[in-house]
Amino acid sequence: MSQDKKLIIKKEWCKGCGICVEFCPKKVLGLVDEKIEILDLEGCIKCGLCELRCPDYAIYLGGNEDEK
């Protein structure tokens, strides 16, 4: 994935299953209060595995810095 992409989380969509956490090769994600959190944004390699595995579309790589 392109390095200009930004990891975006939709907490209201997250059900706290932890699948994205398990598939993250750099272990930058974690569950806080049963919702996904980015624990180490600098460590993210933007591989897209979290986006690919999330059954609820709660985490994805966006291409626009202004995107919320």
CATH fold call: Alpha-Beta Plaits
What is the global morphology?
globular
Count of distinct strands? 4
Percent of residues in helical segments?
Answer: 10-25%
What is the H-and-E element order? EHEEHE
Low-confidence stretches: none
Domain 4Fe-4S ferredoxin-type: 5-34, 35-64
GO molecular function, one term: metal ion binding
Keywords: 4Fe-4S, Iron, Iron-sulfur, Metal-binding
Pfam family, one: Fer4_10
Structure description:
There is one protein chain. By secondary structure, the protein is α+β, with helices and mostly antiparallel strands. The protein has a single domain (6-62), classed as Alpha-Beta Plaits (2-Layer Sandwich). It is 15% helix and 24% strand. The protein is built from two helices and four strands; from the N terminus they run βαββαβ. It has helices spanning 19-23, 49-53; strands spanning 6-9, 29-32, 35-38, 59-62. The chain has a two-stranded antiparallel sheet with strand order 1-4. A two-stranded antiparallel sheet has the order 2-3. Strand 2 (29-32) and strand 3 form a beta hairpin. The protein is globular and about 30 Å long. It starts with 5 loop residues before the first strand and ends in a 6-residue tail after the last strand. The mean pLDDT is 90.
